[in-house]
Amino acid sequence: MSFASAFLGLRENDTTEKRIAATVESVLQSISPECDVPDGLQNVRSSNLCYGVPMQWALGDGAQSKRTRGVLRERLTTFEPRLNTLSEIDVVENDQENSVTFVVVGTSQVGSDTEAVDIEKRLSRMDQHVDNGG
Predict the structure, then answer these.
(1) Is 11 left (phi over 0), alpha (psi -120 to 50) or beta?
(2) Theoretical Cys-Cys bridge with 52: which of 30, 42, 82, 125, CB 3.0 to 4.6 Å?
(3) Whether 130 contacts 117, CB under 8 Å
(4) Which backbone phi and psi does 121 adopt, to 5 degrees?
């Protein structure tokens, strides 16, 4: 049994998009301590110290949304090597449900295969829980 199937609920025959979506979900549910790590310390920047996103995405103002999208782009580039390009990261708020939906669009590259990736993950502002319906 692989780590992914044991701990992430993934199967070996799952699509690349589903596997990438699991990483997006994991990054979004992990709160980053926001340490200021210089660019020159690449091993530290790619360690669990820098994994996740700041919790400020839940505040919902425009500046924080832009910053969160930038951090998410950086973290997915660092921690999800199957993502070849990220053409869009959008944050859609739903005040009635007190939730935020993250939309990640791009392409994946596994071997010589390139596929379009379109992932939506909805998180509750209350407990940062991912709603699997999205």
Answers:
(1) beta
(2) 30
(3) no
(4) -130, 125
